[in-house]
Amino acid sequence: MPELVKVGMADAKVGTAPSTLISYGLGSCIGISLYDPQTKVGGLLHIMLPDSTQSRANENRAKFADTGIPDMLNEVLKLGASRSRLVAKIAGGAQMFAFANATDIMRVGQRNAQAAKDVLAGLGIPIIGEDTGGSYGRTVSIDLSNGVYKVKTIDKGEKEI
Amino acid sequence: MSDDVASLSANQMDALREIGNVGAGNSATALSQIINRRIDMNVPRVSIVPLGEVPDLVGGPDVMVVGVFLRVYGKAPSNILFLLPRDSAFYLVDMLMGKKRGETQKLDFMDESALMEIGNILSGAYLNALFNFTNISLLPTIPALAMDMAGAILSVVLIQLGQMGDHALVIETEFNTDDEGIKGHFFLVPDPGSLETILSAVGVE
After folding, report:
1. What region, left, alpha or beta, does residue B59 occupy, with left being phi > 0 and alpha being psi -120 to 50 degrees?
2. How far is A146 from chain B (nearest CA, A)?
């Protein structure tokens, strides 16, 4: 029975096939996966905020795109992933409630998605799948035996990116 | 007091529980009058929980819920979130719209509007009681509604707290109708800076 590893909010897990890494109920948060298809090493990170330098509580590095992604990169490299083969997928970044005068914090989903893309670009890791935005929650998982990243929603069914 | 809420004394927790008690008691009365049913209410839970564990308070991040969200402005800015499991929300709509139990299977515009109004009334009742107790005047925004996974809906509140700390202070009350048909969770989540204001208003610093 392949292992199902739960990734909490502001949390990251890395592993190898045949594990599946899963994170439930993402709203404005982003689920970022890294995967090396040859060694079948990968990770899933659930960030809440774009930028640790804008926060007064930045001890938990997995909470932010700018610190969480490089940390997860180091962890998958330690497990034997090759940096040149790594590919990324991202999903989440919704705006759950529509307000007429959405403040910055309400649009944090959009900012999270942009930050994830910028950080990955800075690290030279290509994004080969993306499902961000909208106004609905997502449960995301990556199957480390084949790199399939699944996005489950309530109204829009399930898809693979 | 530190920015993070992980360090409150027993006295402070008691004071917050009492605030939850008067607020939610008033809300429960209001709800009871609207739907003409007895409402049971538990003793409010005041919990300081790691952000990631907040969704577990309502059954887990992937449970389907209807959430009515209000931002609260004033001297102690906070968030209010009224969460109902989906079936409870449908049953509440049945009652409000004079339908038979089980008739509502999805929410149309009118249903959503009715649930937001309930959120409005409950929040108003809660904040009124809080005002009588603390003399802090708080005004809610118009409500917003979403039906989705609990984790996704709660993330709206948790992300705001995440900028300031890694824990959430939640004052939470569970409502039940006497026939157990409707369960709801009412959350008051003060912004980290608001705690001091609330606690000093009730004389517990």
Report:
1. left
2. 25
